[in-house]
Specification:
- Helix content is about 55%, strand content about 0%.
- The chain is mainly alpha-helical.
Length: about 100
């Protein structure tokens, strides 16, 4: 199972390396990502580097709240995410409840 996820992560890692090079000024042109649908305008270099570090450590794709695996399709669309869909939704519900109380 881990080997299959590693194979799935290989194109994501290649894209993130290209994005890191672009954001750090090593590339003049924005990279053409193979699998990622990443909006570079709001992407921060530290987030890209965090994801690359997690890839090297084997912790990439693990939700920081529940420790469950984040789906590969979610990672392709949101490669810098650190929450699974369930935990992201729970966070959004909490934030809306807090906002409603503050009004």
């Amino acid at each position: 199972m881990a080997e299959k996820r590693d194979r799935n992560f290989a194109p994501i890692e290649r894209d993130l390396i290209q994005v890191e090079a672009f954001l750090s000024g090593e590339l003049d042109e924005a990279p053409k990502c193979e699998v990622l649908d990443l909006e570079l305008a709001g992407t921060e270099l530290k987030e890209v580097r965090r994801a690359l570090t997690q890839l090297k450590r084997g912790t990439y794709g693990v939700c920081i709240d529940c420790r469950e695996q984040i789906g590969i399709e979610r990672l392709r669309v949101r490669p810098l995410t650190h929450l699974c869909r369930h935990c992201m939704h729970a966070d959004e519900v909490r934030e809306r409840a807090i906002s409603a109380r503050l009004r």
